[in-house]
Amino acid sequence: MFKDNIIAELKQKINNDPDNIDNYKNLANYYIGCDDLNNAASVYEEILRKNEDDFQSLINLGSIYFFKKMYLEAIDCYNKSAQIEPDNYATYYNLANVYAEIENFENALANYKKALEINPDKPDTYSALGYLYSDIGNYQKAIEYYNKAIVLEGDNPENYISIANIKQKLNDPKDALSYYEKAYNLNSKDSKACLCLANMYAELKDFQKAQEFYEKTIELAPDYYSAWVCRAIAYSDEGKTQDVIPLLKQAIEINPDKPNAYILLANILIDEKRYEEGIAVYKTAQKILHNDAKISTFIANAYVMLKNYTQAVKYYKKAMKQAPRDNEIKLIYLEMINAYIERKSKKE
After folding, report:
1. What angle do CA 141, 144, 150 make, to 5 degrees?
2. Cα(242)–Cα(239) distance, integer angstroms
3. Quick check: 14 and 22 in contact, CB under 8 A?
4. Cα separation values, 77 from 4, 110, 115, 207, 208, Å
5. Alpha carbon of 134 to those of 139, 206, 207, 250: distances in Å?
6. Is 85 in contact with 118 (CB distance < 8 Å)?
7. Would you say residue 291 has pLDDT above 90?
8. Which of 21, 232, 241, 252 is the most exposed place for a label (fewest CB within 10 A)?
């Protein structure tokens, strides 16, 4: 009710003074504050019909389009803003972000570099370039730009985490651990840095340290879905399967719309020969993933273990329909059929 009253008041101001652009901007800003991007976009579009050269409205509308994955519309807004203020950092940085998102490396790179020409002291641009180069596998360049961001913004754990992630890809666990530790030491309350450090220790098979940092992560962020899932995986790798199931169930409770925990839980249940339970959990994951071929194959495999070949055939056929070019699924299906026929013939 309070929100409706404010919106009504702002709209009344527009009706009373339709030529005052500030009234429109106040309404658009309020919509953004309420996460009502559709209505905010409509107001900015109205502002631009009245004044197509309103720079800030073009930038804001471009950002809304970007968030809504309307990339061509976002590019159009930012290109128009560049014509109005050709030396504005925000235009080129935002334009580069759009091109990076649609994997147009050349245009993304050109616009990030243009943004740096205008303002070479923005650490976000160096971080974005680091991410861009990392994404195409040029890790040396990526590290170079992340380090430049660190020089400008040394207290941001995210840049250290990004370098650590690259070090892992380069099979350099010692350096990766060092950078994760730097990120954590910068801010021991950063749950992401804490989780990364836990995962690194788990990868290094130092499970005692790993569990210590998983515990800290969960203390910092009790509803951090990934922390519960990663901790469960670490326990599984450690061979402590009895601790895995409650962790995965907690992850599911935190976010019932993510499939990972369901799949891992089903795998554990199947390993424990709790086939019916495992199949039920796989089927829940299948609903979330909207007919994923791999899940159908998992279900079929579980039915084979239950010797329910009718259901196994049904789900193998479903998997082949969902992924008609996946020869591995076809091979598994044929092997199952041949084994079933062989068993049948021996009985006869």
Report:
1. 145
2. 9
3. no
4. 30, 18, 17, 51, 52
5. 5, 28, 29, 33
6. no
7. no
8. 241
- Taking each helix axis from N to C end, the angle separating 244-254 and 225-238, rounded to the nearest 10 degrees, works out to 170
Q: One-letter amino acid identity for 181?
A: E
How does 275-291 read in b/e, with b if 16+ C-beta sit within 10 Å? bebbbebbebbbeeeee
* DSSP 8-state assignment for residue 291: S
Q: How far apart are the first and last CA of the chain?
A: 75
Residue 345: its pLDDT value, please? 62
**315-339 mean pLDDT:** 85
- Measured CA to CA, the distance from residue 222 to residue 24 in angstroms comes to 41
* Distances, alpha carbon 57 to alpha carbons 23, 61, 62, 122, 224, in Å: 13, 6, 8, 23, 36
User: Is residue 17 packed enough to be buried (19+ CB in 10 Å), middle (13-18) or exposed (0-12)?
Assistant: exposed
CB 265 within 8 A of CB 245: yes
Using the CB atoms, write b or e for 141-160: b if 16+ within 10 Å: ebbebbebbbebbeebbbbb
Place of tokens 């030396």: 87
DSSP output for 238-268? HT-GGGHHHHHHHHHHH-TT-SHHHHHHHHH
Amino acid, res. 45? E
Q: What is the pLDDT of residue 57?
A: 94
pLDDT digits (tens, 9 = 90+) for 84-113: 999 999 999 999 999 999 999 999 999 999
Helix (H, G, I), strand (E, B) or coil at 273: coil
Look at residues 187, 167, 188, 189 and name the one whose alpha carbon lies nearest to residue 176.
167
What does each C-alpha distance from 299 to 101, 232, 258, 320 come to in angstroms?
Answer: 35, 22, 18, 13
Q: What is the identity of the amino acid at 132?
A: L
Q: How far apart are CA 99 and CA 110, in angstroms?
A: 10
Claim: this prediction has a pTM higher than 0.90? no
How is the chain split into domains, by residue range? 1-51
How many alpha carbons lie under 13 Å from residue 12 in its C-beta half-sphere?
6
